[in-house]
Each structure stands twice: as structure tokens, then as C-alpha cells.
TrEMBL record:
Protein known as: D-alanyl-D-alanine carboxypeptidase
Signal peptide: 1-28
The entry's keywords: Signal
Source organism: Secundilactobacillus silagei JCM 19001
Domain of life where this protein originates: Bacteria
């Protein structure tokens, strides 16, 4: 996805958490394994295996009894944080050991690290909980376990997005096959003796971004070619010229593009040429922080003719009607020495065209005038 490449990619990375793909430890943005210097516990031995995702070395625990209270304490032993019997299906991961008087204590964390504290060792048994879904591995390596893009291909087969406990469905990804998905990480979950890999992804819904775990087997590598109900698709999010043409044909916001294509009836639209026009020769609104430095190589094309005056006119008159815009485009092409009679003969050229025709985009409401994106480009070139 590009608005300008740098800004859009940075926004995408930040929204999906991809900045932590290579972070060590992977939980660097989460609470430290350090213990308060005035902790009530003695002989403390820190255990960073869970925080560092060393699942072959971690020490997992589960409750010996889910019927008895088993309190989790803060470092100072002044506050009960949680009663573990309220979470009978959890596996608890060791982050430190220590003593208090003659008693042994273990500081443990749930998988999401939202519940961390000290528990009397006598309440716990080593090993994963046999109930529910338990995370036994976590991986960040790309491209198998992180990165992307991926998409859900089937609009009929359920592809549930679960919370980390696998008890709450956050979304059904079969309803979002028009989105590209990026894995932040993957986990292996064990349930009833079977282990399955799940990927952590984020999907945009009408209620905002929703993140969770989906079975990795339900994701298809590559970009989606389903652009239904998508107002804007950026130039690098198409997989082929055929994909791009389908979008132009079906999108309600591509009426101007369709009318401009008709001005070059014998010059076929080409995705590569369109990407060159969009990134190298366009007039567009730049979002905050975008320097516009996203030019692409023109390799594979020659004799490129750029209609800068057209893209500038469309940008300057982006609020005008399509009829007004097309009339202006025709006039400018004629003035540039490309009347209809000449355009009809441009059979050996490829048409590069990409337009976002002053379209409102919700996530840009505070970054562009009126929250709208305008991006116009027109060029032709010959394939080498």
C-alpha cells in the first residue's frame, strides 16, 4: 500500500505491530521481568525464557485445584492481584522464583501478560493446562510466521478470529476477503491433544481495527484480488493488470478513470505503466509527514510520454464534476498535440493511469484537507 510509500508503510507497520517482528525480546513493549528492589521475596531468581519466547525452556504451570482460592500477590506482598481459581483454563508461565519465610513462591504470567504476580508454589503443578487452548510455541520468523501479505480466499468458509484464550470470536474473516492481512506473529495452540498454528492479524471493521488469532491454514499467501466494497486500492496492492482492470470496472469511484480510458480506445491499460505514472508523474495530496519520495523504476518501458498538464489540471480542479474534468482533459490533450485522431493510433503504447478522485478516507480525516485523498496521473509508454 502506498500513499507515499514511506508514510503509508510506516502507518501500516505501526497499526499492525510489525515493528516488533524482529525485536528481542519479543515482549519488549510489555512489563519487564525485573522485580521491585524492595520486594517481600528473597532468593529471587529471574526467568526470562517466557518473555524471550524460549518455549523449549519455559516452565509452565496450572492449578492443582480449581476449587480452592489461589491468590496472586504483588512484589511487596501487600495486595492480592487475582484469584487464580477464576481462570481454571489458564496455563501460567514462570518469570521468577523466590521464597518468603520458609515457603517457595513462583512469579507467573498468563500468556497475554495482563496478569503477573507471585503465587505460593503449593497451589501449582508443572505442565500445561489440559483444559482449553494452550500456547506451546510462539514464532516471529518471516515469511512463515510473520509478515505478509496474506488474505482469506473463501467467502463461504468460516475463518474465525479468536482472542488468545480461543473462547471469544472477534470477527469472521470470511466477511473481509477484500483485505490484505499481515501476521504479527504466530502461536501453536494445543487443544485436546492436537496442536494447530494460529496467526495474529488485524482486520479493519466498521467498528475499528480488530486483532486476534486465526488458524494459519485459513490464510492464503499474497494480496487479495477481491476489491468489492473497497473505496480505494493503492497502486501497489494489485496483483496483475487483470486485477487492476476489474477494480476500475467495478468501483464506483473509478468513473473518471473509465472515461479517461475511453479517450485512448486502442491503448491498453497496463498495471506496470500505471504504477510508474502513479509514483513518478502524479499530482496528489500528501499526508502529514510524507515527502513523496516513492519513485519506482521504469525498467521494461521506453518512449514514455507524460501528460503532466492533465494530472495537474485534475488535481487543481479535484472538486469539479467528472463532466467538467473530462472536458478539460480533452482540451489539454488536444493542446499537447494528441487529438483524438492521434490517440486512436497509439496501438503500440501501454496506458498508465491511476486516479483517486477526491475520495473521503476515514483514517485520513486529520491528515488531509477534509479527510479526502486526491491522486491523479496519466502517461503512456512502450513495452521494451
Amino acid at each position: 500500500m502506498r500513499i507515499g510509500f514511506k508514510t503509508a508503510l510506516a502507518g501500516l507497520i505501526a497499526s499492525l505491530g510489525l515493528l516488533s517482528l524482529t525485536a528481542v525480546p519479543a515482549h519488549a513493549d510489555k512489563p519487564s521481568i525485573a522485580v521491585a528492589p524492595n520486594a517481600a521475596f528473597k532468593q529471587i531468581k529471574l526467568d526470562g525464557t517466557f518473555m524471550y519466547n524460549e518455549y523449549t525452556k519455559i516452565t509452565p504451570y496450572h492449578l492443582k485445584s480449581t476449587k480452592k482460592s489461589a491468590y496472586m500477590w504483588n512484589d511487596l506482598y501487600t495486595k492480592k492481584l487475582h484469584n487464580l481459581k477464576s481462570y481454571p483454563n489458564y496455563t501460567w508461565y514462570q518469570t521468577a522464583t523466590g521464597t518468603k519465610g520458609n515457603s517457595k513462591y513462583v512469579r507467573v504470567s498468563n500468556f497475554s501478560e495482563t496478569k503477573v504476580g507471585w503465587v505460593w508454589a503449593g497451589y501449582l503443578s508443572k505442565g500445561y493446562n489440559s483444559k482449553g487452548y494452550q500456547v506451546t510455541r510462539k514464532r516471529y520468523g518471516r515469511p512463515t510466521y510473520a509478515g505478509g501479505p496474506f488474505h482469506v480466499a473463501s467467502t463461504t468458509k468460516n475463518a474465525y478470529l479468536w482472542d488468545w484464550t480461543h473462547t471469544k470470536v472477534r470477527a469472521n474473516l470470511k466477511d473481509y476477503t477484500n483485505q490484505n492481512l499481515f501476521k504479527r506473529h504466530s502461536v501453536r495452540m494445543k487443544h485436546s491433544g492436537k496442536e494447530t498454528w494460529y496467526a495474529y492479524v488485524t482486520v479493519k471493521t466498521k467498528h475499528g481495527d480488530v486483532s486476534g488469532y486465526v488458524a494459519a491454514s485459513l490464510l492464503t499467501p499474497g494480496k487479495t484480488t477481491n476489491h468489492a466494497n473497497t473505496d480505494v486500492v493503492y497502486p501497489d496492492d494489485f496483483t496483475s493488470t487483470t486485477d487492476y482492470l476489474e477494480y476500475i470496472k467495478d468501483s464506483n469511484y473509478q468513473k473518471l478513470t473509465r472515461s479517461m480510458m475511453a479517450l485512448f480506445p486502442n491503448t491498453p491499460v497496463d498495471l506496470g505503466m500505471s504504477q510508474i505514472a502513479a509514483h513518478n508523474y502524479s499530482n496528489r495530496i500528501y499526508v502529514d509527514g510524507d515527502d513523496g519520495d516513492d519513485a519506482v523504476s521504469t525498467k521494461g518501458y521506453k518512449d514514455i510520454i507524460v501528460f503532466r498538464q492533465v494530472s495537474k489540471y485534475l488535481f487543481d480542479n479535484r472538486a469539479a464534476s467528472n463532466e467538467t474534468k473530462i472536458a478539460g482533459v480533452k482540451k489539454l490533450l488536444d493542446q499537447a498535440g494528441y487529438p483524438q485522431s492521434k490517440r486512436d493510433k497509439m496501438t503500440d503504447y501501454k496506458l498508465g493511469i491511476y486516479n483517486i478522485n477526491n475520495v473521503p478516507i476515514s483514517n485520513l480525516w486529520d491528515q488531509t484537507p477534509g479527510g479526502k485523498m486526491a491522486w491523479y496521473s496519466l502517461a503512456v509508454g512502450k513495452a521494451e
